[in-house]
Amino acid sequence: MALIYVSAWSDADIWRAEVAKHLPGETLRVWPDVGNVDEIDVALVWKPPHGSLATLPALKLIVNMGVGVDSLLQDPNLPRHVPLVRLVDPLMTEQMTEYVVLGVLAGFRKLLDYRALQAEGRWVEIDRDVAPPSERVVGILGQGELGTDAARKFLALGYKVAGWSRSPKHILGVESFHGQDRLHAFLGRCDAVVCLLPLTPETRGIVNARTIAAMKKGAWFVNGARGGQVVDADLLAALDSGHLSGAFLDVFNEEPLPPSHPYWRHPKVIATPHIAALTLPSMSERIMDAVKRYKAGKPLINVVDLERGY
Ligand code: NDP
Ligand code: OXD
User: Fold this and answer.
1) Residue 89 and residue 286 in contact, taking contact as beta carbons nearer than 8 Å
2) What number does the ligand 2 atom closest to the CA of 69 have?
3) Average per-residue pLDDT in the chain?
4) Ligand 1: which residues within 6 Å by Cβ?
5) What sign for the dihedral angle of Cα 219, 217, 120, 125?
């Protein structure tokens, strides 16, 4: 049986070397050089071309080499009977927490305003009575692998933390909200709102004119999840009207963000090119662990629930 790498995203040789290191005796084929398709039982994938996995009739395991599976689940020909495992890795989580802490603090400490003053060479204290962390609420949409870690780290920094999820949570120190009914109540609590939700039909466009209106005036928005969760025109309108003080965005409806997109030059936006948390070769132990489990007939972990969409 054989492994195949299906992705145009990074150099396949890196993953060939990782397979050789962690799965001695296995070789990695690279899409589209599939060879005999009846031999391929495991696919290591990141954003594989739609339809590609359906051409592998002997497939028994799909390993997503990233966290989010939204792109994969949008493939109408995804072999849905094959278990799909996603990447959960402590380093991935640390990277995301670092990113969203950076994003929130940039807002709270008025980085955009000071940057503008710096450009003019002006020494001005904008905010002498800056509120202490204990008086600010950081709200996190999503209390899964990434959202929970971020919540704990914001607590450690002294902030009040609120979280929103689908099911009830009991995370020490976090004010938990769950379900659609409690979304607006949650949003109204937060001085900064961080999105760490998976992109599903339910969460697409969740940051829109109505939910933004439910946020506090002057709130700051950070998106480390997926661009599809934001209605761009509504976010831009809220930034222009001053309802939101700014946005720190890593992900976009269209990636790469087109050069003419207003986010690039908007004075209240900090935009980064989908780098909040990157899959690194050092995470291959976790990626290959899924293959080892499958080969040993052990239970798989981090299996995606295709019905839920994450
Ligand atoms: P998890 O699946 O571990 O957690 C998802 C959380 O979202 C859960 O708390 C879940 O609730 C909640 N949720 C899902 N749907 C809803 C809903 N309809 N209403 C309320 N809450 C909902 O995901 P991760 O934390 O591992 O990852 C989150 C996302 O981050 C990924 O899907 C990916 O898109 C993005 N990401 C972005 C990266 C980047 O570089 N920008 C890197 C890595 C990930 P419940 O717990 O009740 O199920
Ligand atoms: C991921 C990502 O989901 O990098 O892993 O966006």
Assistant:
1) yes
2) 3
3) 97
4) 67-68, 96, 142-147, 164-167, 196-200, 202-203, 224-226, 250-251, 274, 276-277, 310
5) negative
